[in-house]
Amino acid sequence: MIKAKKALEKISPQEFENQNYQWRLKLDKNENIYGCANNILSAIKNISSKEISNYPIYENLFKKLSEKYKLNKTNFLITNGTNDALKNITETYLESNETIYYFLNSKENINKNNKIIYIESPSTQTGEIIKASDIEYMLNKYNDKLFVINCSYISYSNLITLEDYIDLIKKHDNIAIIKSYSNDFAIAGLRFAIIIANNTIIDNIKKIISPYSVNSIAVQCALMILNDNKRMEEIKEWNNSAKILFEEILQKNNIEFYKSEANFILCNFKNYCDFYYEKFKKQSVITKKYSSKSNYENYLRITIPTLGGVKFIGELLNKKNVIIFDTTNVLFNEKELLISADTLNELSKRYDLVIYSSDINFEQLETYKIQKYFYSIHSSKNIEISKYLNKIPYNTIKFFSADVNNIIKANMANLETIGIVPIDSNQQTVINNYKHLGINYITSKTINIENF
């Protein structure tokens, strides 16, 4: 077996998401949820056979960029998305002993090995911006570093424009700007971005850039969008209206969030993060969740949907009464489902349903196709019920259990507890135990919608 280079040994391979699932709201990638304009679709439909069979010609696109941003054609490069842009810049300027410094907020820990200072404004995580004056301060302070400013979401900002950063290029020779149009005009599938910099930086990148990385279809669509100022104004207006409502809903539910100048909001769900992520997911709403090693472990980044989508998320954020089923033998045994799927479906409309157990039979949950009704399925043996309650939002809780020890703990946590009498147990003994504890009980064969 031929080995890959050593630097790749500890790096995981790229995983590509399954696109077959039909999400009600796909809000995890900061994509433009309004879709591309009709003129983009027309450009794709009308592209000629010659444009497909020949390599793309970029001259008209460079002319259009020059006109739009009032710079020379030689101040631009086009790339296959922002990743391609950053790759070309780093391969041009980084030596083996040099590094990239990812600038976050106002933390300055730049060292002598940092050759490139990478700044996102707005940030792709928080939506925060960095003022052009602050960047200019750093351009002067670290004039031996190359500052790369990713402005992919800047068209959504009400506080700053791309032109504010372009003005810095006219005065400084250590800055390059990356601008993607994927999220402005809903062309993420076409992969189109630009690099803006002085002639020397552009000429250096041209020494290593792939000559035809932007295809002919993307070129024709780019010509369309660079002429279409009205479309971006409409999208920005729609985004602003939905963002205002979204922020009101978050404040109403006491959810902290970053003030975003982009088309998404980073929300701090604290202990409830896992619960809401699963609740959204099982309602066909996909959001961006961060790993436990991230600075944003308890955050969800949510692309701002349409006004209707915002209202739907608001409904999901409303606290409900919760039903906790302790141990899966309350739900089914080896032979049958003890609570019908229809009953669980009806309950899920009125309650948030949870399973709390140390011995969950996931295979049976899959067999009976009922896992979709539960927003939290907790299987750890190491967390007491009282601590677990901190991880789920609720108004009131009903706790259904067939385990006397857990019933006692639930009582101590002041939960409304209902004892389940399993059909395969010594039922009278179990009933006597429940009576002794002073709790209500039902047999597992009589659980139906009326019990709730």
> Biggest sheet, open or closed, and with what strands and sense?
6 strands, mixed
Find the CATH topology of the largest domain: Aspartate Aminotransferase, domain 2
For the record, the CATH architecture of the largest domain stands as 3-Layer(aba) Sandwich
Q: How many strand units?
A: 17
* Count of distinct structural domains: 3
Roughly how many Å is the radius of gyration?
Answer: 28 Å
Mean pLDDT: 90
Walkthrough of the structure:
- The protein has 452 residues and is of the alpha/beta class.
- It folds into three domains: 39-227, Aspartate Aminotransferase, domain 2 (3-Layer(aba) Sandwich); 231-317, Aspartate Aminotransferase, domain 1, CATH 3.90.1150.10; 321-451, Rossmann fold (3-Layer(aba) Sandwich).
- Helices cover 36% and strands 19% of the residues.
- The protein contains 17 helices and 17 strands.
- A six-stranded mixed sheet has the order 2-7-6-5-4-3, with helices on both faces.
- Helix 14 (362-367) links the parallel strand 13 and strand 14 (374-378).
- Helix 1 (38-45) packs antiparallel against helix 9 and helix 10 packs parallel to helix 12.
- The longest helix has 24 residues, at 229-252.
- The chain starts with 24 loop residues before the first strand and ends in a 9-residue tail after the last strand.
